[in-house]
Write a structure and sequence with these properties.
Chain lengths: 540, 540
């Protein structure tokens, strides 16, 4: 048995059964080993950003890591943006970067580069396997590190000769027990659970009681939930605390995986625009963080504060990502005397299917009217997608996956990975036209794997978010040459043609009625679909 | 005047008049300044790999840097693969990475990451501007560093507040003179010259004479030319040396910019496959490097040597990339008594236009029959493109730009940048179907800018190079699950549809006659074209 096969077996033994990949020569033994380890499913992406983003989407839904196999430094480079998003989402991901053979590195061959330097900014854990025999152990360690809590990107940099050489011994000489044992049961994606990951450390009762006391004081307070607190169980506990104490319930701006819709407590998300977030936080004396960071402005703007916490507001942490977040919320619920019966679930209702010319609002209403129960929504709709959250708030229960790290090009790959993690659930990708073009190759993987993903492209012919930002940063009255850099209208992108080129059926819609009809068709039929929603140009 | 405008002016003053960009919020002041500095042309790419690859192509043809504007760490990440190729090509490129405002970094906002760690592996030079006033100086220093020789990637990491704040003073307080002065004349792309870059240090006469003595000894010897030695002037001198001494004339495997065709001395390129390169080098006693690295295997293969220099062969360096490479070759020519009259130019002739079913050979012959004089060929045709070099060897004089760093996804962006550097010259991009999908967004920039690029996609429905490598690395008889990871056939990519989706006219051809007709049409008409050459599946 060679190292590559041992690595694959080690991953499977640790519960990883899906490997997204865009391999090259240095990873060929890993690819060849797929035939020896049938429990591992290989999923090909045509670009590394698809591979890493899909692993992110998979991990968010499955609650356990997929592997992402990348080719040397440049292959890792192409995957960095979505690994950045995964790191921000605390998604468990095991990245495997193939490297030149150990003895080959000294020759500075064309693809040689400093992989460590590229990997560190996006990796919470990094290891260089020492020998073929250590790979099974290294795989187990990577999965453990990736799983957290908090989840993170764990990276193995595997030289080709360590992949192709025979395993001698069982790896225990390398300082850890062999990572053998029966495969962990593959739990699939629980319909509402992310049940793969360990719960984390219990939060001490003193902290819980102290925060309970603050909340019972009657002073203006808010709970800010994020991370693993945005599962239904966490939201129910948080809603009960809110109900019992009058504390406001807020959610971080871009949660990694928010459960919402009918039956789940609604939670107000902090706005992206600092001006709006400031208004949401105004007057607070206490802000309680629950697996969320203290709110800061996404970007700096001249003359505006970066820290959004109002003056005179104290910030306390109930639980970090390393803690048993849901347990801490339950403890707080008990401590404040909150109801034990799940309360505060959102009432179920749908908007009327819209009529007339297509607007961003009409797209949102059409989706709200049609969103299937159990859907997973990957949201990279940016400005044009602004109304979707409101119009789907009362739709049947679903999950919402956001752009956690701000690195554009996440939406389609995350949708792809989510669909593989939950093959029985419909997936919706909300894409802005600009964002869609970063990792559009994900559509091909969706077609190849027959994934049930419906992509709505909000086509406003521009980087509308940047039109907004251009004025927000005080860059002055923008001229024609500046505006041309934010303009996607010359030529206008034809997403029907682009999707069909990758084997995905697609349609272009210009009225609300067409939107409704296309959504119905896409949800009724298995496999991927793209709907190009043609809107007016620019911002709203 | 704010820092962003000063930076733009500084770049223009140093001779940089083209900025490829995919900006975000932190770069908005830079974008706004385009209207104040009309000498700077902004060119939008829909993905950062297009931006950096286009800057590489521009620099290879213009001989002076373009700028590449990127958004924070993830934007840089997306551009790393093609910066890696540019670094390997010794192309002058000025990379500008926008960062969060200095005071905002402490807040660890979602897009915060370790930009330095990402930038270092692909940057020969890196600077953090200290103030708005220093930006003009920093721009001049970056252009100087990028220009070399040897050329390199020079990176400026520019915080948003340094961009938006007013310039106070002239930057000399930051330790260098202000980078003002009249703009350097913009020379455009000389038809056969890369005349922007400084020549480099003179090689000392002792080295030249010593190498001349070796070559005159009559022992089997070869000149291995690369880098700036592959311009026509260098090749004429090298050919004269070869003719006078009997030394073999070889070229590195993937030259950044090789002049070839009728009238230019032909040079045998070292093969990509180590087995073939070993045969080319067999029996040599002396290998003379001229701005080239000593030959090594691209990848390591079990049981095969990494170093391809035969045993008993001495390796000497005539000139490195820092030296006056062409001057050194001319000196050597003189020292060995080589003819001063340009000799050894390739005879001009074309293959007959092919007939019958389309094969990789027929595509190559059709191109050889039609390649316009003065063409620039960006070659990422990989396995299916193997025959093109031979069939175009006697075509009218042209330039050939190779995949220097092995990071796939270079071809279309490099073609895009080359076309902007030389608007009067036809550009041909040779693309493999797999490779084309990494940075296909380049087609949109070609359409927007009306660039005269003809792209031939060799469609064999697979990562054929990896089918070859899978057996070469000794990964054994590959099974069905392994082969599926190298297969692009489910679904087959429709490049006509993909190109049209980005506004580029396209055609699908299945016979040699159609190929000839489509090439004639594409060369006769301005603007971009894509020709999907449908071949049999897999390797040849």
């Amino acid at each position: 048995m060679n190292g590559a096969r041992s690595l694959l077996q080690g991953l499977v033994a640790a519960g990883v059964d899906t490997c997204f990949m865009n391999p090259g020569t240095s990873e060929m033994h890993f690819v060849a080993a797929l035939d020896d380890v049938p429990a591992m499913r290989g999923v090909l992406g045509l670009f590394e950003g698809v591979v890493t983003g899909a692993a992110d989407g998979y991990g968010r839904i499955a609650g356990r890591p997929a592997a992402a196999l990348l080719h040397l430094g440049p292959g890792l480079g192409n995957g960095i943006a979505n690994l950045h998003n995964a790191r921000r989402a605390h998604t468990p991901v095991v990245t495997i970067v193939g490297d030149h053979a150990t003895y080959h590195k000294a020759f500075d061959a064309p693809l040689e580069s400093d992989i460590d330097s590229l990997a560190r900014p996006v990796s919470g854990w990094l290891r260089h396997p020492a020998s073929p025999a250590s790979l099974a152990v290294d795989a187990a360690a990577a999965v453990e590190a990736a799983s957290g809590p908090p989840g993170t990107v764990a990276t193995l940099i595997v030289p080709a000769d360590i992949s192709w050489s025979d395993v001698v011994g069982d790896g225990s000489a390398d300082g850890a027990p062999a990572g053998t044992g029966a495969p962990r049961p593959v739990e699939g994606a629980g319909r509402w659970k992310r049940d793969g990951a360990p719960a984390g450390d219990a939060v001490d009762g003193g902290t819980v009681d102290e925060i309970a006391k603050i909340l019972r004081s009657g002073e203006p307070a808010a709970l800010l939930v994020g991370g693993r607190a945005t599962c239904a169980e966490g939201l129910f506990a948080a809603a009960a605390v809110s109900q019992a104490t009058g504390a406001k319930l807020l959610c971080e701006t871009f949660p990694a995986n928010l459960e919402r819709g009918a039956g789940v407590p609604a939670v107000e998300r902090l706005a992206y625009l600092a001006e709006m977030a400031t208004a949401q936080l105004e007057g607070l004396r206490h802000l309680i963080l629950v697996d969320a960071k203290s709110p800061v402005s996404f970007f700096a703007y001249p003359g505006k504060p970066s820290d959004l916490v109002p003056e005179g507001c104290g910030v306390r942490t109930l639980a970090t990502g390393a803690d048993d977040v849901v347990g801490a919320l339950s403890g707080l619920q008990e401590s404040v005397g909150g109801s034990n019966a799940p309360t505060g679930g959102t009432e179920g209702r749908r908007p009327e299917p819209p009529a007339g010319p297509l607007t961003a609002q009409a797209v949102a209403a059409a989706l709200g009217a049609a969103l299937p129960e159990g859907a997973i929504v990957s949201d990279e709709g940016n400005t044009a997608g602004l109304f979707v959250s409101g119009e789907t708030a009362h739709a049947p229960r679903h999950n919402w996956l956001c752009l956690t790290g701000g690195a554009i090009g996440q939406g389609l790959p995350v949708a792809t990975g989510a669909a593989l993690a939950a093959p029985d659930r419909p997936v919706v990708a909300l894409e802005a036209d600009g964002s869609a073009m970063y990792t559009l190759q994900a559509l091909w993987t969706q077609a190849r794997e027959g994934l049930d993903v419906t992509t709505i492209v909000f086509d406003n012919g521009s980087y509308a978010i940047l039109e907004l930002e251009l004025s927000r940063v005080g860059a002055g009255a923008s001229g024609e040459r500046a505006r041309a850099m934010l303009d996607l209208d010359r030529p206008r992108l034809d997403f029907v043609s682009l999707a069909q080129g990758m084997g995905v059926p697609a349609a272009r819609v210009t009225t609300a009625e067409e939107m409704t009809a296309q959504l119905a068709g896409a949800f009724a039929e298995d496999g991927p679909h793209v709907i190009q929603a043609v809107l007016g140009k620019g911002l709203f």
